[in-house]
Amino acid sequence: GQNIDQPTEMTATEGAIVQINCTYQTSGFNGLFWYQQHAGEAPTFLSYNVLDGLEEKGRFSSFLSRSKGYSYLLLKELQMKDSASYLCAVMDSNYQLIWGAGTKLIIKP
Amino acid sequence: NAGVTQTPKFQVLKTGQSMTLQCAQDMNHEYMSWYRQDPGMGLRLIHYSVGAGITDQGEVPNGYNVSRSTTEDFPLRLLSAAPSQTSVYFCASSDLAGGRGTGELFFGEGSRLTVL
């Protein structure tokens, strides 16, 4: 079966760095996505990785290792507004997205 | 820019009632989809469409119907509501079609449905 695993909840301190991991087992691979979802709102796109390596976008970076079936989202200089759920999703061989359950990130002052 | 517009935002139904969740996008996206989101679970695909006149089932299609008569609109119909359909529903669109593009999804604001 297809499976996406990510931690249920993480806590970090304002101004710090946090890494949210995602491991996957899917039928084929056509890219990995990270989305941010604030409570009561819709998910919004953060990043897309299809090749191995690190993609940096401001305070957010996303890393992919296809051979390990592993990705992480790195958030630097954490701000209170970063408190949200972070969703990992993999596009399989049929170009359908398989979603993880999300990681709820709690930022403390 | 309206993006993806969903209505209604909140709805309470009784078991057995039917209703339609509306979804419209103004980005000329070929791909549209409906998801449900339940606590502790990932987004689950209900139905999707890769263009007008073309629809297909996702992971959890039972109890739901869709149609795609225009590029802009993709309504989701609950035929006979059941308590198990209590959820948050998201419509999403993308320029992904036939496996092209990055597939970034643009989501509507969500519809919270409670079935009593």
Question: Characteristics of this structure?
Answer:
heterodimer; A: 109 residues; mainly beta; six-stranded mixed sheet; five-stranded antiparallel sheet; globular; B: 116 residues; seven-stranded mixed sheet; four-stranded antiparallel sheet; 11 strands
Task: Give a short summary of the structure.
The complex is a heterodimer of chains A (109) and B (116). Chain A is 0% helix and 57% strand.
3D architecture notes:
The complex is a heterodimer of chains A (109) and B (116). In chain A, 0% of the residues lie in helices and 57% in strands. Chain A is mainly beta. In chain A, strands 2, 4, 5, 9, 10 and 11 form a 6-stranded mixed β-sheet that branches. A 5-stranded antiparallel β-sheet of chain A has the order 1-3-8-7-6, with no helix packed on it. In chain A, 36% of the residues are buried. The model of chain A has no long low-confidence stretch (mean pLDDT 95). Chain B has 116 residues and is an all-beta fold. In chain B, 0% of the residues lie in helices and 47% in strands. Chain B contains no helices and 11 strands. Chain B has strands at 4-7, 10-13, 19-25, 31-37, 44-51, 54-57, 64-66, 76-78, 87-94, 106-107, 111-115. The interface between A and B is medium-sized, with 23 and 20 residues.
